[in-house]
Amino acid sequence: MCRTLGEPSRSTTELDRVLPAKSSYTFHDELPDPRRDDLDDSYYSACFVGGDGKQLLVASAQMLEYEKTDAWVTEVVEQFAPASALTPFDAGDKAVATDKVAAIYVPCLARPAAHLSVVVQLKRPGGAPAAERRDALIALARNTALYAQGNARCDDH
Question: Does residue 152 register a pLDDT over 60?
Answer without folding.
Answer: yes
